Amino acid sequence: MLYIEKLYEKLGTEKVTQQETELKRHSKDESMHDAVYPDVVCFPESKEDIQIILHIASEYQIAVTPFGAGSGLEGQVIPIQKGISLDFQNMNKVLDFSPEDMRVTVQPGIMKSELNQFISQQGLFFAGGPDYDATIGGMTATNASGTRAVRYGVMRDQILDLEVVLADGMSFHTGTKAKKSSSGYHLTSLFAGSEGTLGIITEITLKLHSIPDYSTVARCTFETPELCAIAAQNILLNGIPIMRMELIDSVSIGIINKQCGHDFPVKHSLFLEFAGPKNTVAEEVKLASKIMHDLGCENWDAASDSISKKKLWEARVQLAVSFQDLKGMKEIGGDVCVPISQLPKLVSFTRSSMDESGLKGALWGHIGDGNFHTSILYNPEVNGEQELAEQINDAIVNLAIEVGGTCTGEHGVGLGKKKFQVSEHGAALEMMQRTKQLYDPKGILNPGKIFS
Amino acid sequence: MLYIEKLYEKLGTEKVTQQETELKRHSKDESMHDAVYPDVVCFPESKEDIQIILHIASEYQIAVTPFGAGSGLEGQVIPIQKGISLDFQNMNKVLDFSPEDMRVTVQPGIMKSELNQFISQQGLFFAGGPDYDATIGGMTATNASGTRAVRYGVMRDQILDLEVVLADGMSFHTGTKAKKSSSGYHLTSLFAGSEGTLGIITEITLKLHSIPDYSTVARCTFETPELCAIAAQNILLNGIPIMRMELIDSVSIGIINKQCGHDFPVKHSLFLEFAGPKNTVAEEVKLASKIMHDLGCENWDAASDSISKKKLWEARVQLAVSFQDLKGMKEIGGDVCVPISQLPKLVSFTRSSMDESGLKGALWGHIGDGNFHTSILYNPEVNGEQELAEQINDAIVNLAIEVGGTCTGEHGVGLGKKKFQVSEHGAALEMMQRTKQLYDPKGILNPGKIFS
């Protein structure tokens, strides 16, 4: 293809490849969505490289799909119209680090773990993103978050400035290096979460936080998900700056115990983490314990040693991946977010739907945010199982939207949540589509994601 | 004028007026910008009323300028192209209050104080906005903030959902009632801070916070603004969730003492507030005191009684308005925001510029955010004084942008900061203007604000 020859000509063979293994690696993410091979993979090293690629793509009307670590869960990196996969692995540098301003500027391909290692020498950490590793660019593009969002907010809340390149090669900064601004339209928040459909992000300036001196984890159980939700509400209503607060239902606790050899009480559970100066944490744990016991919690267990902390949060992470290794089985993952008061309804509905269907499933939630995940297991060889799993997932999403929530709390829309965009956004969707048209009139930037 | 007859016909005389006193009241805000009378003032009571007004305005190509409390500081509510002033005083209701979700939905005309009174029965408060009173709609439109932003973030961070009406009458919600979402483009942040130029906001859903049980105020002095900034950085680096942290330079302390009868030490000062559960606050104050004394602070004074608290924060508020009553004099207000590390440079530059000019001036800053205000006094009757005051203000803004900051931290662009939009936003300004064109093709919504 002529445009690929042009790419080789302008960028050289080190930054362009059509190797089968690379095409395969860039054909999919961690989701259940079908793989599609790109025609070519580019590895830009600078904004200028990206401008060259976009000029060629624009001239030949070729799709450009950004690729970070391939860890996404809704198919955002799958090049469904083939064309160019834009891999940021060589744009992974720290460009500017200002510890005194608690601020860092990075290229989008840097992994969260690499960033945190770099800045930890100064007692700082980056508080956004999921619990597993991912690129900062991918987290920005999907407005990712995770267990710590209850304290620090989502990815969008961590970003001070972006440098972006539009489809026509035009480049600009969306913000400044100041902590806040009331100047002009907030394009930073427009690009954060736009999944590569409006422009290519080339630099990201992030707020940082200080690493807490000390932390304590705790765990307790309640008779019902309702009581778990009320307990979580009371933690927030009492102004405790909880670091993490997770709901895991009794069936999912059983799965953790069985798969990972734990012996947690098989009841609806809250996993908690408190972090800060030692004496402050001690006060917070005391207050939280009182709140929980006043509501009738059982099995309260708090610990500050590293082994207990590791055990607790590893169990939580293991739940999220507990089904991944079951041979021959596939899973469909859910990610709705609802007002906390509606979470018990969602949990009950989900658990009974899964139980009645006969399919195996786990559920857990970032309860302080009302964000709630499911993992439903199906055998693709058994007729109707995939459809059944999808039906349950659809019903959960529809219920979430009905009670005032959203189809995705942190994974993004990608391919999997496109069908819910009309019911969630209504007339706003038209303005989103017209915004897409304004920024990318030829429709070359990650086409077919968020909307068709 | 024909369109005014149509307004009377469709809305009735109770919702439309051309009374001189009302035209005058809607001709200006608290800024130094020249008053312009609208042709007519409308008082809509519902979204439907607003749609009627916009249909008429659209048909006759008449400017529509939203008006909240008139408390703005950059001329946003001044109807510079005359036409319709859209006053929200009759759209001031609480529409939905969910204490268990720490969430409230209001109409834009409600005052912050009214909202806080309503929700305080449930132990909750709205943490956004300036320290003086304003409408929630106005605060949303300008992305306002104030002393508590260092802990709770700016207005944009408080908003879960907006209902908006576009110039053509199309209406939609920008978000959901969930605490977070990764679905679609974040139109909420686009409208927050757009100063009524993209659409009319008709409903606002806000996050709430719990009222802290207890608080302690403290005050201390340092030899230089640099030391104040380092002290503030160390408070943040130690993870203390400080409620307020204000810098007031020595000259401004002198003004407070003289104008308001206080006896604060005439030195560069930090005013602080800690808030939370009693024991936690005590730990935070202990840690902060150590941090300050390690840096050589003097005059450390902490108190938890209500008289001391009132005295301290009243003095801070008095500084902001200390020049307002000086007969025959006018003031020009500044509002830049820079990385904290750059604040000492700005403070020194500003103080020496004011001193060398011979003009009276005060300066104070939300030091935790790097947001920094000035109030420069001039006599409009004295030749050249206004120009001199404006020159100093311009030089401060240019320096702020040069060191990576913004021309406005919380007041918005309005009329006063239009001239800095090119140097601050560069090529991004073109996309902002094209966004304006997309949302308001006839240019009837608050024309001439942010950009021409």
Automatic annotation (TrEMBL), chains A, B:
Its EC number is 1.1.2.4. Its cofactor is FAD. Residues 33-211 form the FAD-binding PCMH-type domain. InterPro entries: FAD-bd_oxidored_4_C, FAD-bd_PCMH, FAD-bd_PCMH-like_sf, FAD-bd_PCMH_sub2, FAD-linked_Oxase-like_C, Oxid_FAD_bind_N, Vanillyl_alc_oxidase_C-sub2. The keyword 4Fe-4S does not apply. It is an enzyme of class 1 (oxidoreductase). Signal peptide: none annotated. It holds the Pfam family FAD_binding_4. Keywords: FAD, Flavoprotein, Oxidoreductase, Transit peptide. This is D-lactate dehydrogenase (cytochrome). It comes from Oceanobacillus jeddahense.
